[in-house]
């Protein structure tokens, strides 16, 4: 099946990247002002700050106003660095989101399945046993297989045995999102590691807010849906 490309998202990110490469020309020509560029530049300043500041409501509001389509907020738990990701494409239920810095994350129903551009990336994951439990908001057991880029750029595989439990319903309000979701916890052990993923799953089976373990180098990512 061919990919469904969101051209508006690609165009918006492409424009921002072009302006970043030619920042003097984009910033000094009053006939070529791009308020989207201001947003990207503020994100650049944030990514270089120590410690990084959380995204302000003003940045989130501006991002929602100046983009179209699904929008996600990604944040690394270890250093709190964050980025806004627009949906770029979809292929058989797998959605790929991207930043203006050419980093991408692929998700299925809000569950991370791959990353690129972060270093030590998640190359692929087999969640065929646990994903139906998480999306279905049902308790149970399953296997999670994580394949990531390790030493000397070689792909390493980790296999986990996981237990999925379900908690209470909570309201989730972020950006343009306002839904009820159920707490779902996935606890996994294997290869001498223990990881715990926390999800808030809506009635459609999508995780709209989560803390997900990615790879040994990247640790946990916090993901938050701002617009579906």
UniProtKB/TrEMBL annotation:
This is YjbF family lipoprotein. The keyword Calcium does not apply. Gene3D superfamilies: YmcC-like. InterPro entries: GfcB (IPR021308), YmcC_sf (IPR023373). Keywords: Lipoprotein, Signal. The keyword Lipoprotein applies. It holds the Pfam family YjbF. PROSITE patterns: PROKAR_LIPOPROTEIN. Residues 1-23 form the signal peptide. Transmembrane segments: none annotated.
């Amino acid at each position: 099946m061919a990919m469904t490309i969101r051209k508006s998202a690609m165009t918006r990110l492409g424009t921002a990247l072009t302006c970043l490469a030619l920042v003097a020309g984009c910033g000094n020509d009053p006939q070529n002002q791009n308020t989207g560029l201001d947003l990207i530049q503020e994100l650049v300043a944030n990514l270089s700050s120590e410690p990084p500041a959380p995204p302000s409501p003003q940045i989130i509001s501006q991002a929602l106003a100046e983009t179209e389509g699904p929008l996600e907020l990604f944040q690394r738990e270890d250093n709190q660095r964050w980025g806004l990701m627009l949906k770029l494409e979809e292929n058989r239920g797998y959605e790929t989101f991207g930043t203006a810095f050419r980093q991408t994350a692929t998700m299925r129903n809000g569950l991370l399945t791959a990353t690129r551009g972060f270093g030590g990336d998640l190359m692929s994951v087999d969640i065929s046993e646990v994903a139906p439990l998480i999306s279905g908001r049902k308790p149970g057991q399953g296997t999670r297989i994580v394949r990531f880029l390790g030493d000397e750029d070689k792909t390493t595989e980790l296999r986990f045995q996981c237990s999925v439990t379900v908690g209470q319903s909570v309201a989730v309000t972020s950006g343009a999102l306002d839904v009820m979701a159920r707490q779902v916890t996935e606890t996994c052990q294997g290869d001498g590691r223990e990881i715990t993923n926390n999800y808030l799953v809506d009635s459609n089976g999508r995780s709209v807010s989560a803390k997900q373990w990615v790879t040994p180098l990247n640790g946990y990512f916090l993901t938050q849906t701002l617009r579906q």
